[in-house]
Design brief:
With 86 residues, the protein is mainly alpha-helical. The chain is 78% helix and 0% strand. It has two helices and no strands.
Length: 86
């Protein structure tokens, strides 16, 4: 896979996973609010935070792949050896 392909996979997957983790945090908070047992809402909250942080990691990897793509694969628009010459 090229850096571009990895970027196009990791960034959207990260955003979707962050959204899922956010929804799960709300779900865990709702469990606490509705009086479920402590172990139940703590376990749900822990799982939600794991999903949320995994999403941040995936998105961060997507950003890193985007930078690598821009540095290594994207054709250079300007030849730095000809700076100043028009």
């Amino acid at each position: 896979m090229t850096h571009r392909d990895k970027w196009l996979v990791f960034a959207p997957a990260g955003l979707v996973t962050v959204g899922l983790g956010t929804c799960l945090v709300q779900w865990a908070a709702d469990k606490k609010r509705n009086g479920h047992s402590t172990s139940e809402w703590v376990a749900a909250g822990t799982a939600a935070l794991v999903v949320f942080n995994a999403g941040l990691s995936l998105f961060g990897r997507g950003v890193a792949e985007s930078v690598l793509y821009q540095l290594k694969e994207k054709p250079r628009e300007m030849d730095y050896g000809n700076v100043g010459r028009l």
